[in-house]
Design brief:
- The chain is α+β, with helices and mostly antiparallel strands.
- The chain has one domain (about 1-100): Ubiquitin-like (UB roll), CATH 3.10.20.30.
- Helices cover about 15% and strands about 20% of the residues.
- The chain has three helices and five strands, in the order E-E-H-E-H-H-E-E.
- The protein has helices at about 25-30, 55, 65-70; strands at about 1-5, 15-20, 50, 80-85, 95-100.
- It has a five-stranded mixed beta sheet with strand order 2-1-5-3-4.
- It is globular.
- The relative contact order is 0.31.
- The protein binds FE2/S2 (inorganic) cluster.
- InterPro entries: 2Fe-2S_ferredoxin-like_sf, 2Fe-2S_ferredoxin-type, Adrenodoxin-like, Beta-grasp_dom_sf.
- GO terms for molecular function: 2 iron, 2 sulfur cluster binding; electron transfer activity; metal ion binding.
- This is 2Fe-2S ferredoxin-type domain-containing protein.
Length: about 110
């Protein structure tokens, strides 16, 4: 069981337990503000954008070409550590991962 910490723009955070689901699904199920997941993870909405903490970004599988393309239409300018959270599956080796929620994704 991995834990994920979602950090809001005001510095407040929510810690959730996860088991093989995506960062987006866990956030939506736990009503984490700022992660909408409108398309349900079909890689067509870009409302699940997060900034992965730098210490964790390198542990993730690389973005697909489709994810790269969709990062162009996020509500907040993407950075080098941006991911669409529906494309990141939480596994035990990501226990403690920290992601930052964009302020404009409401
Ligand atoms: S939930 Fe729609 S792109 Fe991630």
């Amino acid at each position: 069981m991995a834990r994920v910490i979602y950090v809001q723009p005001d510095g407040s955070s929510t810690t959730c337990a996860a088991d093989g689901r995506s960062l987006m699904k866990v956030a939506v199920e736990n009503l984490v503000p700022g992660i909408i997941g409108e398309c349900g993870g079909d890689l067509s909405c870009a409302t699940c954008h997060v900034f992965v903490d730098e210490a964790w970004f390198g542990k993730l599988k690389p973005r697909s070409d489709d994810e790269e393309s969709l990062l162009d239409v996020t509500s907040e300018e993407p950075t080098e550590t941006s991911r669409l959270s529906c494309q990141v599956t939480l596994t035990d080796d990501l226990d403690g991962i920290v992601v930052h929620v964009p302020s404009t994704q409401r």
